[in-house]
Design goal:
single chain; 19% strand; alpha+beta; 44% helix; Beta Polymerase, domain 2; 5-stranded mixed sheet
């Protein structure tokens, strides 16, 4: 699916996804060096087993994501295209990479969204029930025609909220 709309491509889990992440992470580390505080595989491709969009989601943490001049030109020179700038949502930036397909999410150090994404991933790795539920919801939504990719993402929010409630209880109990 392109950014404008259509059907979402959901595929069976690909055993190459962790290796694709590792290669991209090493490349990003080489590009950014000490500017990079952390790089982490998140999203459905980071959870072994369930179907997902064949796009590697990566969280990249820098000191201050607003300071694009420090990191964006280096990423762009390496083939990452800046496609999203959300100053009102955690100063989030997103870069897209084409081969392999990846979404590189840039956040500032200490951003609560980093931990939320990590918890969601970790809980899905732990809970086979929620892993299956999330995969089922994604497959059901993927057959619809969407005006915008964000509409598909928004349609998943109710089930994500349910899953996050269980994930939060799990992490509190540990």
């Amino acid at each position: 699916m392109n950014g404008r709309g259509g059907k979402v491509d959901i595929v069976d889990y690909d055993l190459d996804w962790p290796q694709q992440f590792a290669q991209l992470a090493a490349r990003i580390q080489n590009i950014l060096g000490p500017l990079l505080l952390s790089v982490e595989h998140v999203g459905s491709t980071a959870v072994p087993g369930p179907a997902a969009k064949p796009v590697i989601d990566i969280n990249l943490v820098v000191a201050n994501s607003r300071e694009e001049h420090a990191y964006a030109p280096k990423l762009q020179d390496a083939g990452f295209a800046l496609t999203v700038r959300e100053p009102n949502w955690f100063e989030h930036r997103m870069f897209e990479h084409q081969a392999p397909r990846a979404n590189l999410h840039v956040f500032s150090s200490g951003c609560p969204e980093i931990e939320r994404m990590r918890l969601f991933r970790d809980w899905l790795c732990h809970s086979s029930e929620d892993r299956a539920l999330y995969a089922r919801v994604k497959r059901n939504l993927a057959i619809q025609n969407w005006t915008h990719i964000q509409d598909y993402a928004d349609a998943k929010q109710a089930v994500i909220a349910q899953i996050m409630t269980r994930a939060s209880a799990w992490v509190t109990a540990r």
